[in-house]
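YM 10:42: Glycosyltransferase sequence, as discussed on the call
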Amino acid sequence: MDRTPHVLIFPFPAQGHITQMLKLAELLCLSGIQVTFLNTHHNHRRLRRHADIDSRFPASLRFQTIPDGLPPHHPRRQFGFLKEWIYSVDIKSQIEPSFRHLLVSYQSQNNPVTCIISDGVLTFTIDVGMGLGIPTISFRTVSTCCLWTYFWLPQLVRSGDLKFGGEELIDMDERVSSIPGSETFLRRRDLPSFYRSKEIDKTGMEFVDTETQNSTKSHALILNTFEDLESPILSEIRNRFTKIYTIGPLHTLLNTKRAEPISVSSNGLWEVDRTCMKWLDSQTPKSVIYVSFGSVVLMKHSEMMEIWHGLVNSEKPFLWVVRPDSITEELESSDEVAEEVAEETKKRGCIVGWAPQEEVLAHGAVGGFLGHGGWNSTLESVVAGVPLICWPHFADQTVNSRFVEEVWRVGLDMKDRCDRSTVEMMVRDLMDEKGEGLRESTARMGELARESVRDGGSSFCNFKDLMEDLRLMCQ
Ligand code: UDX
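YM 10:58: structure's back
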């Protein structure tokens, strides 16, 4: 007798991961699969507060929660939280038992889990699943170009080709010439954050290395990318996995399946401020630079002021997302500065705490995006045909920003620079005539992205393939 597929989805507990995996959950449900989405208690409370989850999702999407392993009074700021998980939480003793317990209880009911789709950095789930006879598919939320570096870098460190320790050993512009596919353009400064510092971050490196190697034991790998964007690296990485489904851009694929697009830029752990849409309506076409650094980046007040001065000096209207928890230092509150900021912002800008980003990027008034090169933001900008300026901070952002400028030609890399004259120059370069070439190549890439999710496109077909495989798993 055929059973209904029942997939358990388990993301790493950070916004950038939850965003993508919740989209996948909705996609599966809209295709007739029953999904249980596993969140930590803390993140689920935030999601429930801001994302209207009870009325938004199909009835076949259920939520379950487990503890995150941190003490109750831990502040759980987003960036700290990522680090806490890697450095403080012992996944084996603090997370794995609750996960196993949940699965065991499902297996004894009449709708057992038939496949686990877990974050590619939570690979303990593969062994738990194997023990209970449930296949696990890994989902990596980073770009393929970054994932590919994760396969190579630990062995370059071990062989001594990638050196740490002391100023004299680190030339940030030195090429990292032994990673196939990026020999000619990837520099030390473009590597994921664990490999850029002068001191080796052993814990971070080992975590990434172990998770990356372990993920190859999974039944298959899902990537939020599309073939036309990353095909050379995809052909390299395919040798490492039994099967890869490239089904991105996920948000675009999802929009093709929804009966009507959802107005709230969803899945957020913050409340969306829609007043900026009205403000955008009052601006001329392609005139506005949208500024947002995702959900985890923290910046100093001095950096924020450099960006603000650069934006004002560029004389372009700007829409800026300043997350309430994103500034690391107290404001230097001279009344004069505050007044100047308020006056100038009123003249040419709009600042909100959290924007409906997908809608903002699709708005005709937006002509450029100054961001951090986060993977979701990069894909969302490409789909909308909006060229980027990337000021990357950590993880895959440093790799993405190099590919944005050098390989995909959809923007400019502002890595390791944050002064007002650079911001002004780059904004002008992007938004004025000089940016015409970038606008054209981004529009072309955006068209390829949209084609990939249309009937017969690569992501469309790969998603269909994934659906068939999920159904086969429960026969
Ligand atoms: C992080 C990493 O940067 C990313 O590269 C990794 O793959 C996952 O974790 P984050 O820093 O949050 O994620 O950036 P990004 O991947 O760009 O995701 C941000 C998401 O928040 C996007 O989907 C964006 O649309 C949304 N967003 C952001 C809003 O909806 N409103 C905002 O105001 C800002």
